[in-house]
Specification:
Layout (H helix, E strand, L loop, with lengths): L1 H15 L3 H4 L5 H5 L23 E5 L6 E5 L1 E4 L6 E2 L2 E2 L3 E4 L9 E5 L6 E8 L7 E7 L6 E7 L4 E7 L5 E6 L11 E11 L1
Antiparallel strand pairs: 1-13, 2-7, 3-6, 4-5, 6-13, 7-12, 8-11, 8-13, 9-10, 9-12
Length: 196
């Protein structure tokens, strides 16, 4: 908004300095606007999380049923057809178990040891009508929020964050009417890890 005001003020000053024969062309700041390119709002998006540089990695892939618990509409799978997305193909992951009439997604992932970080890639299909916010909570549905991540329809985002020693993460999306149905939501290759 400040840039627009500055541009208009500059044009106004320039217009007052225009010789009289050209003043009929540009009389006001409002007239000057039609000579400016349209102003688009710039949406700043957080970059994908980057994994810290590790010389050695101790990891626990969430591949076994003991490390996963469905809360709503999810399944742990190695089925390539469910895990194929425009952003990549995954060897294992958590996906919706069927078409979701409401784009809501919730599951627990658990760790058996002491891991300081969690990472995954998240994809939502392009048919979803609005951005989805994924929230990661420590230990329970009411636990401390460790990470929020907004994903646009058709987008794949990487997430990597500290778990704060949590033994379990509750991963869910907000429940909103305007999301419409979801064909595919994928958490690709989720895993806990620690740099050593």
């Amino acid at each position: 908004m400040k840039k627009i005001a500055l541009a208009l003020l500059t044009l106004l000053v320039m217009c007052s300095c225009v010789p009289p024969q050209y003043q009929s062309t540009i009389n006001t700041a409002n007239d000057a606007r039609k000579y400016l390119p349209p102003v688009r709002e710039v949406v700043r998006e957080e970059p994908d999380d980057q994994q810290p540089m590790c010389s050695r990695l101790n990891s626990l892939p969430v591949k076994k049923r003991q490390l996963y618990e469905d809360y709503y509409g999810t399944m742990l799978t190695t089925d390539k057809s469910w895990l194929r997305t425009p952003g990549g193909n995954y060897n294992w992951g958590i996906a919706n178990s069927k078409r979701l009439s409401m784009a809501y997604f919730a599951a627990y992932v658990k760790t058996t040891g002491k891991y300081g970080r969690f990472k995954t890639s998240i994809y939502i299909d392009s048919g979803i009508k609005a951005d989805m916010v994924f929230t990661f909570r420590a230990n329970s549905r009411d636990g401390e929020v460790l990470k929020n991540l907004t994903i646009r329809p058709g987008q794949t985002r990487k997430v990597d964050f500290e778990t704060g020693g949590a033994k379990k993460l509750f991963i869910f999306t907000e429940l909103r009417i305007n999301h419409d149905a979801a064909e595919k939501i994928v958490l690709g290759e989720p895993e806990f890890y620690t740099c050593r």
